[in-house]
UniProtKB/TrEMBL annotation:
Residues 1-18 form the signal peptide. GO terms for biological process: osteoblast differentiation; signal transduction. It comes from the Eukaryota. This is Myocilin. It is found in: Cell projection, Cilium; Cytoplasmic vesicle; Golgi apparatus; Mitochondrion inner membrane. It comes from Scleropages formosus. InterPro entries: Olfac-like_dom, Olfactomedin-like_domain. Residues 86-134 form a coiled coil. GO terms for cellular component: cilium; cytoplasmic vesicle; extracellular space; Golgi apparatus; mitochondrial inner membrane; mitochondrial intermembrane space; mitochondrial outer membrane; rough endoplasmic reticulum. Pfam families: OLF. Its main location: other. Keywords: Calcium, Cell projection, Cilium, Coiled coil, Cytoplasmic vesicle, Disulfide bond, Endoplasmic reticulum, Extracellular matrix, Golgi apparatus, Lipoprotein, Membrane, Metal-binding, Mitochondrion, Mitochondrion inner membrane, Mitochondrion outer membrane, Palmitate, Secreted, Signal. One of its GO terms (molecular function) is metal ion binding. Residues 134-179 are annotated as: Disordered.
Amino acid sequence: MRFLTALCLFCLLASIPAQDRASFRRSNDRSGRCQYSFTVDSPTEASCPGPGGADIQALQSRLTLLEALVSRLAGGETGTGTMGKQAALQEKYAQVAAERTRLQRDKERLDAQVQELQGRLSELQLEAQRLRAKPCQLSSSPGGSLQGGDQRASSGSSIFPHLVSRPGGPSETAGASDPSWQFGRAAYQEFKAEVTELPAPRPNRKGDEDRCGELVSVSDPETHRKADGISGKYGMWLQDPNPIAPYGPKTVWRMDAVGADVRQLFAYEDKEQLARGFPTKVLLLPEPVESTGATVYRGSLYYQRRRSRTLLRYDLASESVAARRDLPHAGFHGQYPYSWGGYTDIDLAVDEQGLWAIYSTSKAKGGIVLSQLDPHSLEIRRSWETNIRKNMVANAFVICGRLYTLASYSAPNTTINYTFDTATGQSKAVAIPFRNLYRYNSMVDYNYANRKLYAWDNFHMVSYDVQLGDPDNI
Ligand SMILES: *[C@@H]1O[C@H](CO)[C@@H](O)[C@H](O)[C@H]1NC(C)=O
Ligand SMILES: *[C@@H]1O[C@H](CO)[C@@H](O)[C@H](O)[C@H]1NC(C)=O
């Protein structure tokens, strides 16, 4: 009888083994990864049948029999015994639930650490790039402010032996010390220098303009990502409608625009990587950016230099300033912003016909001036003055040579209520519904390659499909 009681107790204990005998340990393995291990004291299989598969019913009935036996042996304590066991089980369950919550928190913390490490990795890559660029700068750029741009301008032969002469330096990162990589890059830059000296080809693929028409409707926004830091309250995100290698049509560019010294340009492989928050690259711009008016076009980032009317063309492949020019008479830093403010005085835009600047001047008395720019030199090709006041509109963009303005940046249901056609010089009122889903839209730009508007609405990167009318019906 004694033996039976002992066996029975053992089986009861074994029926709640995980809770009773489990221990939980965290440690780092050799590669520095976090390792979670659960240890459970296991009875030898023979001593008590495992609770798996078809055995479970048999086990349960045996358990019931044994329970009855125990209760008879233990006499009056039966009821409280079962109750006590239930209470104990409940307690164990609560413990397990608590442990699970804790694990969840640990996981979140680890995820955050991964993100942080990713960020640091990007910084290190950036640092490596800067180190690599430095000697070239000393040898070829006395002015010093234009980094790789001068590398391209100088003769290839002065870069070439220099880069090749220092592969494998002890302080260099693996990527930088790979001689074949160095060789490839130098050769590539040389090649590029020749290409960029040629006159710019016509900016657009044939057919883009043929498909042009008047804006008919804008879809509801699709949300791609929410910025995680306070610096992401407003910003810009874009895809190049006419990309140049090494970047492609899927590459996503992003800049958080809050802060006095905005220089970081994040590159993501595609929208999925943007959504996951893993940039493939962080470019550090040589001069700070003003506001959210930047745009990406034909392998360059075009932007307004902070506190100035200076426009810069930053070549994304060579990571250097390729052109700079003042936008004549343009108001800046709060003179003629959009209605939400944010120093949005100069807004650059791209459409089927090329590169545009949307701004105002004192001569235009705050009315929107629209200028078509030469994408290579940033010179004004042609300008139009409109009678719509820049600080009364929330944002503006250009589609097929027509300027469109948005009435409100914060109203959830607003309209695009005005358009100006550069072909005719005529303006007119329209009423195309537009949704500000997150109620603080700080950037709206058109991409003609995929017929979408890209917008930054209160930390959220969103896009809208646009529908254009049949050109024959205009
Ligand atoms: C468009 O909306 C803006 C802002 O609400 C308003 O000031 C302007 O008068 C409207 N324009 C037209 C043409 O309705
Ligand atoms: C805005 O428009 C959408 C769709 O037309 C509608 O469902 C929503 O209720 C409107 N919101 C407001 C605040 O009017």
